[in-house]
Design a protein that fits this description.
By secondary structure, the protein is an alpha+beta fold. It contains 3 helices and 10 strands; from the N terminus they run ββαβαβββββββα.
Length: 185
């Protein structure tokens, strides 16, 4: 089996897998979706919400905001020795959000969340959470922890994970004179 990295960036990875079977490629895809740990907001404590959006909707939107972090700094809650339901600094990160629309309407974005650990941050700071009218306020605390896609979709570290066959084209030089007519169709 051979793996050749074609593209590797913070937001994407593309690689070529040779000398393997489709079942193995599909197994890799499924493992990436369900078994790779990632950080997500799991608990939301809303102290003040005078917006038109219900607390549950805001909590759901926050839970689906993808977070980036250094995975070596945290452990899965079930592997942590604290035994606390709320977690400890080894298995969770705390963030706060305190925003008020004073003179004009304001959109609250994922980048407005301030985490106690500077390594934890939204992948994109421009994910809209709620729009506040003048005079409205949103004040809350979030607890983010590691989890896997097997537990919930918010812990899936990939949004699209797919594989495809790379065709092998063999040209019969006895029958082809490279005229290009076959490309025209």
């Amino acid at each position: 089996m051979e793996i050749k990295i074609l593209e590797l960036s913070e937001g994407a990875a593309r690689f070529l897998l040779r000398g393997s079977y489709p079942a193995f490629a599909n197994a890799l895809r499924r493992i990436m979706i369900s078994d790779v740990p990632s950080m997500a907001i799991d608990d939301v404590f809303i102290y003040e919400n005078s917006s038109a959006v219900h607390d549950e909707i805001i909590a759901h939107r926050l839970g689906m905001v993808p977070l980036k972090t250094d995975l070596d700094r945290y452990v899965l809650p079930e592997e942590c020795d604290c035994g606390s339901e709320m977690g400890c600094p080894k298995c969770r990160a705390i963030g706060t959000l305190d925003v008020e629309a004073e003179g004009e309407a304001r959109t609250v974005y994922s980048g407005d969340i301030q985490f106690d650990d500077p390594e934890v941050a939204p992948v994109s700071p421009k994910v809209p959470i709620v729009k506040l009218a003048p005079g409205q306020r949103l004040k809350l605390e979030v607890h983010a922890r590691l989890g896997t896609g097997r537990q919930h979709a918010k812990w899936q570290p990939v949004s699209a994970c797919a594989y495809k066959y790379v065709p092998v084209v063999e040209i019969d030089r006895r029958r082809c004179d490279a005229c290009g007519k076959c490309v025209e169709y």
